[in-house]
From TrEMBL:
SUPFAM superfamilies: PLP-dependent transferases (SSF53383)
Name of protein: Cysteine desulfurase
InterPro entries in the record: Aminotrans_V_dom, Cysteine_dSase, PyrdxlP-dep_Trfase, PyrdxlP-dep_Trfase_major, PyrdxlP-dep_Trfase_small
Needed co-factor(s): pyridoxal 5'-phosphate
Limits of the Aminotransferase class V domain: 4-380
Amino acid sequence: MSLIYLDFNRTTPVAPSVIESMQAFWSTHFMLPSQSHVHASAVSEAVENAREGVSMLLGCDPFEVVFTSGGTEANNLGVLGAAMVCRSGGLPSDLISHYPCNGDGPTPHALVSEVEDESVIAASRQLRLLGWEVETVPCNEYGIVSPEAFESRFRETTHLACLQLANPVLGTIQPIRKLADLCHNRGIRVHCDATAAVGRIPIDVNILRVDTLSLTAHKIYGPKGAGALFVRRGLDLHPISYGESREMGLRAGSENVPGIVGLGAAASLTARCVDEAQATLNELCERLIDGLRSTLDGRVTVLSEHHDRLPNTICIEMGCEARRLQKAARQIVVASAQSISPPDEMTRTLRAIGRTEKQIGRTLRFSVGWTTSREQIDKVVNLLAEASEVILS
């Protein structure tokens, strides 16, 4: 049975050219870039080339790119690293004494949107343990945070805002530039989780005006275990891991050189292809929507259909239980909400926009990618139509 993969927002296959770029760094160029040997210079040069590749993708300078182990670490560094500086004044030696729980000053305040990734939510829980007050900002029925509602929550003590660029479940894109401008007018730092958006839409950090921005390699046809954090020039940030200092002093430990090289290659590939790919991805999604509507007699509801969203993502409430559809059409790899505790990202997002538990149980998230074909889309439509007929008969 040949699988039809439509879960590219979860992870992507590694592109052949990316695999090829990494090969020599498993064996021939196995040294670390910091080693004092002439043969290590090739490794150091490869790391810096990768940094340049990521910077071209984001529209920033290479020295504003910090390599991490993935999006989760990048989000933690962007949130907790900024929070430590906001409280300590950027003095590492005074860090512990300036934690909110050890100080007498006003309690710092952070705003976190309701539809953030679990890594951002978990980092915000750590802020609470450090004495911060963290306020969750709700979204509307389309997963969008209202700039007016967001601004109304600002306080004199608000130091940090965490805002997702695009939601990986609904595909909706936040008005980040407007939100960031509001924050900067009040001296509030903005961390942006862009892991779902990078590679789907063009990104320029100077247009977005965020202070830090995260990405991960495995969602742009690169390897797992590699990611990066954009840190705006001149911005103070504390490390959150300690040991032998790397990455401009913001990360400890030996570099994952093959992963970094793979990330750089994937970033360069994405930068070349992202504009052209948008139209194709959008066409495939529209083909899927039209096909399902015509074969399922209108028993489909496309969430956030007429709002600005990622070109590769559609979230659809079907006419029957999503898990039963998945079981009946096992050839398709697609995302559904998991009825577990704590709730997964898809469940949290759908609850946040007001969907009922029954509606959530009927919802599938489709995310197409570079290797998706029209023939696959047509096959998916037929498979889901057949499965629905069996389940509803």
